[in-house]
Fold these 3 entries.
Entry 1:
Amino acid sequence: MRIALDRDSQTPLYRQICRFLEGQINNGGLAADTRLPASRDLAVSLGVGRLTVNNAYAELESKGLIYRIPGSGTFVLQQSPAQPAEGVAAGIESLPAWQQALLDQPGKSAAQRQDELIESARSAGLISFAEGGGDWHLFPQDDFRKALMTVLKQDDARVLSYGDTAGFLPLRQTISRILVSQGIPANQEQVLITSGSQQALALILKQLVPPGECVLVENPTHMGFIDLCHANGVRMLEAPLDEQGMLIEAAEKHLNSGRVRLIYTVPNFQNPSGACLSSGRRRQLVNLAAAYGVPILEDDFVGDLRYKGQAQPALKALDKSGYVIYVGTFSKMLIPALRIGYVLCEGPLYGRLLAAKHSADIGTSTLMQRALDAYINVGRYEACLRRARSVYGRRRQAMLTALARTMPRGVTWSSPAGGLFIWLKLPEPLTADDLFVRASAAHVIYTPGSLFTPTGAPSPWLRLNFALHPPPLIESGVQRLADVIRRVLSP
Amino acid sequence: MRIALDRDSQTPLYRQICRFLEGQINNGGLAADTRLPASRDLAVSLGVGRLTVNNAYAELESKGLIYRIPGSGTFVLQQSPAQPAEGVAAGIESLPAWQQALLDQPGKSAAQRQDELIESARSAGLISFAEGGGDWHLFPQDDFRKALMTVLKQDDARVLSYGDTAGFLPLRQTISRILVSQGIPANQEQVLITSGSQQALALILKQLVPPGECVLVENPTHMGFIDLCHANGVRMLEAPLDEQGMLIEAAEKHLNSGRVRLIYTVPNFQNPSGACLSSGRRRQLVNLAAAYGVPILEDDFVGDLRYKGQAQPALKALDKSGYVIYVGTFSKMLIPALRIGYVLCEGPLYGRLLAAKHSADIGTSTLMQRALDAYINVGRYEACLRRARSVYGRRRQAMLTALARTMPRGVTWSSPAGGLFIWLKLPEPLTADDLFVRASAAHVIYTPGSLFTPTGAPSPWLRLNFALHPPPLIESGVQRLADVIRRVLSP
């Protein structure tokens, strides 16, 4: 153990040692029953006499902070937990000015507020429709563990070294093959692997939209993108959407203003609304982007998860003039902990993003990329998709049926053709924000729609994830929610 | 396979199909010998007649792009590679304006230039002193593979799910225990785990220094931090350093100007100079920070790798007023592919960084964090350190001895007490940049000092990593370098 001692100080050395240890015991840095170094050893490593350390230990013992077991050692005594309330209150005034200045910045992110809501509702028997991903019971966990084991058993040091910042080349090839099979022109030189699609969005936004400038978003939209805009000081101009996706006229009005630097869209089974941009609007949007010279960021987080109707072409597949930047991910369909997403783009932007990726974190874990590449190929990806489509398709139907059977008059909801989410509107004057506490008391939760809007204002909308539970749980959860709404409407 | 078809277009459907496939075959998206879907299957998935697909395939075959093996299928024919030069030349003019604007931004990052230099020198028998890490032969690879296997065998879905954005709690506890054992006050609530220390630097810089504002850096300094400043539009004010570290008078002059928002320092065995900030300057710097109200970012990338002399206290350990933000990493000492670093800080900054981390990539791989936690504890960390100290200490001595024996008069170098790097100065009028091509022709390379300065101007300095090779290779490499220098000095 090392301790910073000031040999010029008027405070005796034994007391400096005592103070450091006392501070660490009180703030939890040294947990109960941690063994302290033998006084002889500590004396050597601090370059002080053994008596000095003994004096420090004696003082700590007299304060009830440590105990000795003869022949065994010196240990930290369990402390009553510090009072955080008092500590914080005292703390704010005594903070340095640069820390206090941080308090003036905007408050919690939407993602943090969502986490807190989910945490606040935690209870036995809770049915949550709030999370944003798929059902982890369906993830190919065993197969992926096997792939990881296989990669680890290869006696190849490169498995555990820094890799190519652009990503592991064979994985980039595999991704480009999957994209081509979906009708999206791609080759491995245009694929950049990122730590989840969230990092892809972060790098692109930062590269293309300086602070104070504007991005066009759907309203509502993905909370992770809203948080990014807030974090980067980027302003959001909003285009509303209906079940056919973004309203193109509204988008064009904003483009006409000349202030838009980037169009962000989730064309397939949008988060949170579940809307799917129609074929006609896709062509209009791509043409508008070219006409106004504004690039499109296409976030295709669950594009292939369609349960009915014909697949729509990706905007990237319709783009003849190089205006679309495509972002995808494996976190929703395969394994969340993968943290592997990707960007498909070309031209100078690719090099910019590569440099930004290096600055951000040097590169995504080589091991995870190799394991994913060992696991995935076009056929396996399609098999995963088929399985998820079949299971989630039944769950979607179960939730739609349950909603129709239980919800009181005045409640309306979307009927998405794919994805994970149903978007539900409460009758006036209810807001999903106010209803949340009652719902969570009835052991059912959702994500309030306010978290998907730039302003965060209370909203009658809420998002239900239908993919998380088997049909019987979906039916119970929807029933509970309907009962809560009914009780509030007719108390 | 899906292909975006425009049914309103005047281009016949068979030709649209043909064009997509032709484009993908020519740009490499469909590799040689890839099997195309059977015409019947493709017709069904595109919703067109089988004759349409047959027509498309016939046209591709007549163009020499595909071949058929009766009874086996239709395959992509090997294409001669595209001419990239022509492609790029044609490309730049035809790029959309938003892409052309990106070309006006500053050029390659220092890290990219380093990668290119190393790549350009790749040859059989090359001895490289250029890389920035430790020797991967010494990494505890087998033990870490075992830890990963153990974690994977735990039948716990959380291993492969999203984790806590702040990091896996037991690992945060382990890190805080390691820090306390080094005399740095810490508890797990103050530790935020990041994807390598590079991400920690990125998050902190972005949080504390708005674009256009200034950060005080040592000159020379860590190229990853220079790249971050350029990427964020942050200006660097430079304080020179000597073998005792940053010159405090120069630092105070800049602080006096009132423009500095953050002080960035690598106090231990600095990258690239190997300098170690003296005990007295450490106290002065911490006091200056408090006096001027400017926080310090302490990057302790190899702090414990000391081969001689007494350990200096971390700035964080001397900080009584909450001005020091401490960043550490496991990539240099353990496994680079871990991509696990951490920040130790408190107050409002912690919450800000947590939100920024969520926006950046949601969280660091849970699996890697669990494996690291299964592997590491205070005792094991110290055992790794002892081993690295012993091996690298001998290599440091081997390089210093070889330099003294071989270098011509006029060449000078540092004698670092720890870390990985020796900082060498060529006699006038040589620059390390000019010498690089000759050195790499003689199969020895280093990192030019210009990459460690904000301006990137040619420099007589160069960085040698002494930790990468066993002594005989170090001696050969230094001998080659000395020969190159001697030949240039007396041609």
Entry 2:
Amino acid sequence: MYNFRTDLALERRDLYKKANNIEKEVDGIETTEEKIGEDITVSKVKILNENGENAIGKKKGNYITIDIKNLKIASEDEIQKASEVVTKELKDIINNLVSPEDPILIVGLGNLYVTPDALGPRVVQDIDITRHILEYMPNVLEQGTRSVSAVSPGVLGTTGIETLEILKGIVDNIKPKLIIVIDALASRSIARISSTIQIADTGIVPGAGVGNARKELTINTLGIPVIAMGVPTCVEAATIAADSLDLFIQKVQEEAQSNDFLNKLQDEDKYEMIKEVLAPQDYNFIVTPKEIDELIENMSSVVARGINFAIQK
Amino acid sequence: MYNFRTDLALERRDLYKKANNIEKEVDGIETTEEKIGEDITVSKVKILNENGENAIGKKKGNYITIDIKNLKIASEDEIQKASEVVTKELKDIINNLVSPEDPILIVGLGNLYVTPDALGPRVVQDIDITRHILEYMPNVLEQGTRSVSAVSPGVLGTTGIETLEILKGIVDNIKPKLIIVIDALASRSIARISSTIQIADTGIVPGAGVGNARKELTINTLGIPVIAMGVPTCVEAATIAADSLDLFIQKVQEEAQSNDFLNKLQDEDKYEMIKEVLAPQDYNFIVTPKEIDELIENMSSVVARGINFAIQK
Amino acid sequence: MYNFRTDLALERRDLYKKANNIEKEVDGIETTEEKIGEDITVSKVKILNENGENAIGKKKGNYITIDIKNLKIASEDEIQKASEVVTKELKDIINNLVSPEDPILIVGLGNLYVTPDALGPRVVQDIDITRHILEYMPNVLEQGTRSVSAVSPGVLGTTGIETLEILKGIVDNIKPKLIIVIDALASRSIARISSTIQIADTGIVPGAGVGNARKELTINTLGIPVIAMGVPTCVEAATIAADSLDLFIQKVQEEAQSNDFLNKLQDEDKYEMIKEVLAPQDYNFIVTPKEIDELIENMSSVVARGINFAIQK
Amino acid sequence: MYNFRTDLALERRDLYKKANNIEKEVDGIETTEEKIGEDITVSKVKILNENGENAIGKKKGNYITIDIKNLKIASEDEIQKASEVVTKELKDIINNLVSPEDPILIVGLGNLYVTPDALGPRVVQDIDITRHILEYMPNVLEQGTRSVSAVSPGVLGTTGIETLEILKGIVDNIKPKLIIVIDALASRSIARISSTIQIADTGIVPGAGVGNARKELTINTLGIPVIAMGVPTCVEAATIAADSLDLFIQKVQEEAQSNDFLNKLQDEDKYEMIKEVLAPQDYNFIVTPKEIDELIENMSSVVARGINFAIQK
């Protein structure tokens, strides 16, 4: 399959359309877009069948993308407004999957000590937990409060344990009816870094379509539905460079200065070649705004509030 | 049972002896002490039978206390030396319980976002994890490397889940043969704050002897042996005040200025009365050095290095 | 002078009245109190003359104390409401001292790396700075925007330089007309920890009344008026213990079980005796809530917003 | 002047040689290189005259570059070894400029809250300060201890004050004889991120050669010699993309598939074109390793220890 180098269904569908010169919609995919005020756009990608799945390498289901402009300099009011959009979309998905009092487990993926990967654990920190209160002091809560618990299981590199292995045990012991997973994603566009939230009702399938299904966090592996909330926090450095090359060759062609060699190159993926040049060492080079610390803080607030209001009545 | 207000077996044994005017050793308890250089003292309390258990409310087993002077201003060398003492004592206990290649799970209890409670998660951050490397790239490790994994399960207040519920699931899934739990403790003595490590081969029994056994982290609940490494990081404010009152009445008596009323008070526990006075609100007031951030940092290094060298050959 | 062990004028005045059995107001001091809603109390202590100064060891001037209940669990709304009270009181004081466009320098005292001392630097982080924008891009700001700059000069122990030496140079170079200093204070009452703000128009006089005037941060040393905003973040451990002893002796007396010896003790200050017992090492033991990290975060928001709205129209 | 997009004299000299097809050394520049063990290389660039200055846009003086391999996974020993190389080179430069007991001021530039910019403030945190001890308790220090003080003045965006304005005042008040400034730099090579230290005896000249001399931190503006220690912590995203394009065109040429248009492009700087494409918003996009937090931590240790041993006998 094509290496999309993005986890966003919306970007994949755009890349697929461009690569295959498709003018209308891809067969098996439905898309809608809605603007909310000046700064927020909600796009919905629905993958309807296997054809849609194969086209963009994502499971059948719903993928909602919320783009928020200028989150870096967002005021308290704007953070609140953005979180309300998250609440609305998330609530619809939750209500489709479980009943109002069914217990939910929130899972913050990622490494707290690596800033662009810290979003999941930071969100968990701000979730309103009720499970232990319902157990030990139920009277202090309103009738009908949903049981909510949350964990940050860490990453394989620092725990030595697959996330699935940790979650399976917890699910067996505390028996939630739904899991909401928060994770940092890769995107193709630097404009989307910490400015976009994707909500999917299909769970998380790392290396989707490439096999390796054993480690996916989905209803198949965990036995209960999994909602995935993902936020792009970085772009691979090699992606930036490869995209620049594409733009460059395109420009050469437009000015009618191209030749057979360049035209052929245009159809190849320069990513692998560039990756080799860029990464002579074993680092994981990413492109990220210098202000990533602050962006992650604002985005964590949006996501945590969005969840807190969506999970209780 | 007497409210010792300390988790250290050594302090409990001293308090018990004093309260009961015991000159020699308590029946059912054995104690030894060794000085290592200028700054380190290793004390071992062995609880031999039920009498010892009842006396100080701790399970039958071994409790090793390592006191380190001046850790606040410790140089790199002194941190290294202290960690070597931890390694030596911990290694003996591990070798008594499991074979050299048996897998070990390290568990950092506590809340990373509350400084005096952050020791466990900070230590986990510095543990050398091997389990995933043994699984995916075994050739890069030396023959005979032990499988080591680690988690920081969070605290009930922020996860809504009992630590035992989380650990049980993980143990079922990854099947370690031994657990080492790191936790922050309460002590009676401010001199011991972040300067003492207690290593126990009995696991962790919160509210020991008071019932509530369901939540203990021991071989009884987890099915495998549990080593507990605890570091005092605070003293309850009410403990400080109550201890001051004791000293005061003692001084009055020494100067032969006491009276029946005071003498009677001396035998009571003033802790509850003081607690009420001190804590008009629902805070958890503690006495801690202003420099607690730095002390926790140094102590985390001592404990993490101590473990890293004890668990591999 | 009496060792008040508190930097709050309000607490000192209460202690002075009690110690001297004064029923009405202290000569040279005026006090008013106002409740704002359920959770906020504003008390104003005005020191009118030298008699007032000598009584409580504070300079002639205005000391406003804002007490906020339950700040630990404050919602976004409550933080906002508290900050508005700060804005109102601070604005009055600023308008008494300078004109609306006179430049202001904000100074965050304290050590960022020691949680109970980090309030000043954290507030500075959230101040809306305009001085450089007025200089380089004045058009992006509204007409009449005041020039605001801010520094966190660090503490003597980590810089080797007196705060006054650093500030003097900055004042000489950038010529503000007013300084607002934010600092963490000691208090007598644990209920006030990170729940009270004192605003004083007299600057900061460390060791007030004890001499050592060289290092005070006031109009005398800096040549421009200095507003001091102080927040209690800890109580000395010895203070807690000494206060407990006082309560204890009082109780003994009430029950008519006292004797001459105790009665005499009652009049002494037990603080020095206790300090010796408590502090066998060179730590600085303090009483602080375990939740200090979160409290400081909330209080920083209150103070920073309070300032931001007070300094611009 | 050519836009080098690097602050390292060594990289500039290499770029200049390449751009001008110079085989030997640039006129007015001298270079030496020395390998120390497996992992460390020390290169020295000496700019001898105006010709050298003009060639690479750096002031006459000495620029020492220390490259350290594999710092990310450095053990305690390797950090120590690297710091010893820093000590040796720094000591030589210091001894050329001042006498053994002349007071030194250490200045950590940068923003503590933006990880790739936090190196300066983090180093300052670990410097051994003596100035206040020499003043208040000289007897606890060895005879001949040098007076050392340190500040982190913050950045213009968060203080509203030029660094020079802050430092001038401090220099006037405490009168050091030498300043050592630590700063994060931009580099051309991702392999150098947090792996290289440049020590220069010429101070810091932002926008060197472009005018704007007013804000330089040098003997000209501060009146005393300034040593600059710089560590690359990021590469501009546009630099990565432009360099990739260069490599690409070079490859096309090598394969004899180029044409006049491409050949002409090769001589232009594609940086500005790419910058526009990359940065549609007002972020400051950088390329940095995901592991930057840990790299900065290790590099801070190397620099701080390097300084601590260089400044005292």
Entry 3:
Amino acid sequence: MDQVRIIEIKEGVFEQNNQKAQELRDSLKQEKVFLLNLMSAPGSGKTTTLVQTIKGLQDEMKIGIMEADIDSDVDARTIQQTGARVVQLHTGGMCHLDAEMTRQGIDALGREDLDLIVLENVGNLVCPAEFDTGSTKNAMILSVPEGDDKPLKYPLMFAVADVVLVNKMDVAEHFDFDLERFKDNVRLRNPEAIILPISARTGEGMEPWLDWLRQQIERQQ
Amino acid sequence: MDQVRIIEIKEGVFEQNNQKAQELRDSLKQEKVFLLNLMSAPGSGKTTTLVQTIKGLQDEMKIGIMEADIDSDVDARTIQQTGARVVQLHTGGMCHLDAEMTRQGIDALGREDLDLIVLENVGNLVCPAEFDTGSTKNAMILSVPEGDDKPLKYPLMFAVADVVLVNKMDVAEHFDFDLERFKDNVRLRNPEAIILPISARTGEGMEPWLDWLRQQIERQQ
């Protein structure tokens, strides 16, 4: 297997972040590149969902992935097996990515020939929500074992998400998770959010998610 | 049900944190109060584990709980039903507690008559590990659905943990989780960590955990 590229990224100045994020978003729009910021708690299944997403879309478009982590390159190695272009971003201990860090990652990945770039953000329901990365859209994953009360405890994450994937639905019967109660809790924070139940492991519910992505990417073209 | 007390806490100066943490730890030792800092990702089962822990120990000692969250008081309400004294700490959007915030929480809770105080930290595998809270010992929970690779991706959290509880063992058969591989990964970060498999839901494995706590608390007396 090829060596995974590991990029050490540096934090930008916080005050300028919103401006830099908007600049990045505008330049990606001009270049017709869709940037998805994918967020979740640790272990919610971001990488597995991403592998299924790549498999579902890679015949239709060119995809690049940025894997952000405090340490390790285990996720980048998993993604590499799909054939998608991937870089591993190391955040130097930081729990989030800002717009400047994201831009550095995109520069390292190369954007010219890509239709879709996914930033797999650091596994964390707090900090990543506080920083606009310059993404075209934000997606987040909440997995069933985490519980249906999480929108009450991590309000900002649910407020900034354009789409909420509810992962690990295949094991829902083993947990006290009420999908309707979860939807109600999400709507308290974000009435506009699209909520899609999936199982990245079994492939259940992936088509509505892929369709949502296709539509969003088409608008950017 | 009584109203849950909600304390809005303010962040201390980062540079002074280590010193303040040591001062808090020393003063708790003098007063024979054991402070446990309980950390995990969102949805790992901190509150359920805490309820079981309180039930197992409350006939032997006096227990106070500090619930730290960005928002909501759902966990404090759950804890309140056990009869333990509890305060809810709101971190003002921050993803961690430092020693000064912890001290403010303990002052609000009152420490005079307590043997054990547990700080249920913000659900997050990154930031809480970076700040010494002044705790006597650090415990963390990793739940089976999160995966056995997490010590590779969140090294500091596993490095600072004195004990690692592996929760949700009752559903292990439904996940690709290898306990031995997990132990190996933990040991890469922390050869000294005690690793205890539990199910807070079924009560499986709680006795070794309670025994560990009893021994630690005894040393503080």
